[in-house]
Amino acid sequence: MQHVCHMVLIGNVGEVKNVDPRKKRPTPHFMQDKVTDSDSKWLPAVEIDPSEVDGALVTEGKWFTKKVSNTDHSIYYLSSESNHTSKILCRSDADIEEAQYEGGFKVWDCTYHLMKYLCLNNPKARFIGKKVLDLGCGNGFLGILSIYLGAEVVHFQDYNDIVIRNITIPNVLKNLQKCSLPPEKCKFYAGDWKSFSELNSFKYDVILTAATIYNSKCYGKLLSVFEENLESSGSVILAAKSHYFGWGGGTRKFEDYLQQNSKFETSTLWTCSEGVQQDIIEIKFQTKDSVNGLSS
């Protein structure tokens, strides 16, 4: 029997915490094998076949719905009570542990801000017929929203395969039951960004990502995904805090990094100054005029 509760754009919002590297969380046996060498400790990228996922999570899980602002759509998402693996992985009070667990079971507040922004700002023109990547997808809300808004292809990527198998894929499959998009138009990936861009050569019109720039040490790998997987006319829409205490990253630092190390240009779409400032920025390849110092 399915259990459905109704909620309105409110979720389990987490805070990014730095973690004492000496405190190691036990690694569940169903996680990817991890190389522990300091230069290559990140999990390799893999594609995950949704047919390998336990179908009982979809048919027997406890489901909530989240009403999407300014639309007639409600996103179905699986309750953590239906998922024993999230409890195993999140026993520590740390939301993120570098190269082991990157926070995929939480829904970060930046995700909700980006969802609301996309719904209020011409979503049909942005998504109909488009190829979309939900990068650092976690629960998959951004990619699922793009499906409802008319995307033609949607791929999902998160660092931990335990997240993809036990929360992302069930959420997507449940929502596809209400959509016309064929399941084969969705693909799922886990692992590090560097090897993701090496594994997957697909080009996307839109890359959606939220709360993924807290760790400045990963900027080079994130940039490689943008360079290798974004269509020349495409755009990245990124939501994040202006600064992540204890990690050193944030929107200002990332924009500076892009300016110094890439052929991308950025523009600010939305800013909230309450508490720690949060921003939504758009990232595109530089145009010929912008390279020459002229306005686009």
Automatic annotation (TrEMBL):
Keyword Ribosomal protein: no
Cleavable signal peptide: none
A cellular component annotation (GO) from this entry: cytoplasm
Compartments where found: Cytoplasm; Nucleus
Record InterPro entries: Methyltransf_16, SAM-dependent_MTases_sf
A family per Pfam: Methyltransf_16
SUPFAM superfamilies: S-adenosyl-L-methionine-dependent methyltransferases
Gene Ontology molecular functions: protein-L-histidine N-tele-methyltransferase activity
GO BP term (any one): methylation
Enzyme Commission no: 2.1.1.85
Keywords on record: Cytoplasm, Methyltransferase, Nucleus, S-adenosyl-L-methionine, Transferase
Keyword field contains Phosphoprotein: no
Sequence similarity: Belongs to the methyltransferase superfamily. METTL18 family.
UniProt protein name: protein-histidine N-methyltransferase
Origin species: Laodelphax striatellus
